[in-house]
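Researcher: Go.
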Amino acid sequence: MEEMTALPEPMNTIASLIDKEYESHQEGPRPHLGASLLGHECERWLWLSFRWAVIEHFPGRVLRLFQRGQEEEKKIVSWLTRIGCEVHSTGGAQSRVDFGAHIAGSIDGIIEKGVPEAPTKRHILECKTHSLKSFKDLCDKGVKESQPKHWSQMQVYMAGSGIDRALYFSICKDNDGIYTERVRYDADAAKKLIEKGKRITLADRMPPPISTDSTWYQCKFCAAHEFCHGSHLSKEINCRTCALSTPTPDSTWTCARYGGVEIPVDAQREGCAGHVLHPDLVPWDIHDSDDGFVAIYEIDGEMVRNGEPDTNVIGSREIIDWTWKACDETFGPFDEPDTVPEQEPTQETVQEPEPCNCAATSKTL
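Model: Structure:
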């Protein structure tokens, strides 16, 4: 009997449609640098993330995993309540800590009393889900060694809440195993983490990377890998990637172009026509400019004026879009296409365009 050809997998499967739905409603980056990030190993990543210069866009499956973690918090609170813990400030009523200078975070919950090992002691509650491999490592080593970012997050929350104990409650997603650990407040560690965060958020210039080796294990899967080890060019145009905006200690952003006025968060996400590319977010050399609202970059040997577009100035979006597109034209980014002579492509006149290397040039910091 002749074997039947297998039917191809349909493109619009239920799973793919669900994932696309999640992806279409992906939230934008947070306006603050969250406490959950302060334990990150790389200060450059923290700076790029806070500046919205590298924005992670997650696939639907990962977004569903995030949602699962949030839903587990409700279960954890329910379980703790059933064994006699008094828990509040959860879900949409979470307590918030704010240290100024754009450093803030939200605590999963507050346990007033009832933790078996210390029934009268207040604890902050930190809920996490783990894969089986991560869960086993956590059980073997404890949270500080196995999950230093989570430990750091709890230290910052304890500093902001005035509560000197935390209950770390983790669930294994593979078998529903539970691991809990009480964590003591480390005032020195918390202070250093908060100071580190403020130094990064208020820094005008980009910090060095954790490694200049593109194969370094902490770099290989980082969302900023292409930026740090490849193009050194941000694709994002918003107020935070603009050289004319400044983060302030009171957790606002101001714009030099408009006389130092505060920029609302929604406006920060859009940017304006006067956007000027930040010199640390492009691979080109910058030259002195006679206009405080225009930067002059040397791109492929040409002096390019960047700012609000006019006859002599090129807008940031045009520069970025041209740089990232495939270089399949023989005219440059700032030549008018209609200046290219119209002629029939013959063997004698057609030439292969030279490869574009403007996005692959590294700038020494």
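Model: The first strand starts at residue 33 and ends at 34.
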